[in-house]
Amino acid sequence: MSTAEARLMRLEETSAIIQYFTTATPEHLELMGVDPSRLPALDAWRARYAREFELPPAKRGSLLVSWLLDNEIVGFSTADKIAFGEQAHMHLHIIEPERRRLGLGVNCVRQTVAIYFETLQLKQLFCEPNAFNVAPNRTLQRAGFRYVKTHMTVPGIINFHQPVTRWVLERP
């Protein structure tokens, strides 16, 4: 298998994020803690990304990273809750179920971390996957994140109240 590459996402690639969430099975959405009724309308979602991409990365409310394998997007990461120069929260997704559990995530997360730390000049990067979603929790541990705690919260605007595991990586 080729090595996956992480890089800042291009506006035209944001359709992969929208398609990922809008075509996911109810079971997969639940595993991620996503409430399908909270997904934005397609036009609003596209417009939000278009507005974000008009800004320099350091001024955006979110920063998106594409994960490519042989020039095909196989996954992505998003960062939000950005306090430039301080901290952000990241999310990670492998698009196709058959590509999960192959080791792509750890490599991509490590590359993505470097992008977030450099672009956003972060001191800390957090990630809070659903506590019952084993794959991202293992991936974060293998990528060098430190376990902080497991707690109940609503981790994002598309999520329902759920148990999450908080992980952190601090700038060396």
Q: What does this entry look like structurally?
A:
By secondary structure, the protein is an alpha+beta fold. The chain has one domain (5-170): Gcn5-related N-acetyltransferase (GNAT) (Aminopeptidase). It is 31% helix and 30% strand. The protein contains five helices and seven strands; from the N terminus they run βαααβββαβαββ. The chain has helices at residues 15-23, 26-32, 42-53, 104-120, 134-142; strands at 5-8, 63-69, 72-83, 87-94, 124-127, 146-153, 162-170. A seven-stranded mixed beta sheet has the order 1-2-3-4-5-7-6, with helices on one face. A hairpin with a 3-residue loop joins β3 (72-83) and β4. The chain is globular and about 35 Å long. It starts with a strand and ends with a strand. The mean pLDDT is 95.
- What would the average pLDDT be, to the nearest integer? 95
> What letter string, H or E per element, gives the SSE order?
EHHHEEEHEHEE
Counting structural domains, the number is: 1
Low-confidence stretches: none
At CATH level 3, the topology is Aminopeptidase
**Alpha-carbon Rg, integer:** 15 Å
**CATH domain class:** Alpha Beta
Strand order of the largest sheet: 1-2-3-4-5-7-6
Which second-level CATH architecture applies? 3-Layer(aba) Sandwich
Query: What overall form do the CA principal axes indicate?
Result: globular
Strand content: 25-35%
Q: CATH homologous superfamily - what is it?
A: Gcn5-related N-acetyltransferase (GNAT)
Largest sheet: 7 strands, mixed
Q: Could you give the count of β-strands?
A: 7
